[in-house]
Design goal:
- It is a single chain.
- It is built from 6 helices and 5 strands; from the N terminus they run βββαααββααα.
- It is about 55% helix and about 10% strand.
- The chain has helices at about 45-60, 75-80, 100-115, 125-135, 140-150, 155-220; strands at about 10-15, 15-25, 30-35, 115, 120.
- Among the domains are: about 10-80, no CATH class; about 100-150.
- It is elongated.
- It is mainly α.
- The strands form 2 sheets. It has a 3-stranded antiparallel beta sheet, with helices on one face.
Amino acid sequence: MSATQLFEPCQVEYGGKPSRGLRIDCGKCGKVHKIPMNQLAHGQKEDQQNRIATRKFEQSGWLIGNRIKDHRCPECYAAERPKPQLHVVADEGKARELTKEDRRIIFAKLNDVYVDEQTGYSASWSDTAVAKDLGVMPEWVKQIREENFGPLGVNPEIAALISEARLINGQVKEKGADASRLMSEIDKVRAAAQTIAGDIQRLAARTEVIERKILQIEKGLRS
């Protein structure tokens, strides 16, 4: 690791698979945090990599120092920082503006993951995914994509999955209708069977009555 690099390279689990990443160590308590870190197209300078990683770690609450030993985890940072004093800020709450450096970083990433206007993004990538990977606003990614690359498009793999899902959904509806018809037929058969069972019970009861009367007649004839 060079003197200018603020974070150590490491391996992390990303999407269920091992991936390249960066780690940060708290200079006070030693806590470790890792993030996936993809290289930009055509290589990536250390200062640019540090800038992107810094945004990601800061989003997780870390304080990034000028040296590795100066990094602080959210807990240590909260314990060390002075309590805020009430004061008036002229542009408080104003969002950070998109800079030329931001544009260059986003453009380089889009050049790596955006296929063409018909296809759009390559598999698993989107405006939101690019923004999360770079630690920038999704609106910035959308703006630069629309200005320099094209529309979202329809990824062939995603389109195929959507088509398959629609086909399966149609088959599920058909099978559901078949099942409903069968259940209706079963209900009719069950009702018919119950009617027949009731008829059998009534006939059996009548048969018993007739048999008793026959026995009484036979007994009277013998007396």
